[in-house]
Amino acid sequence: MHSTILVNQILFLNFSVFSLYKNRKHADFINIETLWNEYLKAKGILNERNIPWEVIDKTIDSITKNNPFCTREIFYKATVNGIQNRYINLKMYEQYRYHTMLEKLENGKFAIYGAGLYGREAYYHFKKQGLQPECFLVTEISGNNGIDNIPIYALKEWKVNENPIIIAVLGNAQIEIIEKLKQRGIENYYIYPSCE
Known about the structure:
- The chain is of the alpha/beta class.
- The chain is built from six helices and six strands; from the N terminus they run ααααβαββββαβ.
């Protein structure tokens, strides 16, 4: 069933593009970029952490091979736009989650993941608002036992609780931390805005 849907989607995309080429007068009724992004959404390609470029390349080759009206550039540009839109939507959603959590945040009932530059920035930001974390979390402890008498724990040593965790680290480290939190059954985490 799933492969039939995929084949039908490719056939529909091919047919639509070919029809546009043969009947240029109707080209204003269909948007190739929109069709392509709907295909990517239906396949879930834009939701994957690592974009499967081999699948995208193969599909684009299949479509553009017999359709001189379409170029690879159109499809790759649409793919990049789709990825950018997904990123913007995820960022807006993450900001909404963060600000909703802030309204409920209680003194001493949250942790900051990260004890470096961004962890300290988050700490002093919350301190200025009269909020102090119960602790700082790190992947591995490297010498420093605390900041302003607030303990630093390695995640593996920390006793899991329901309190929110503010992730104050950048880039790939965020992805690794989120995976580690999920492995421990922790879903109550938020990205500190300076680290988005």
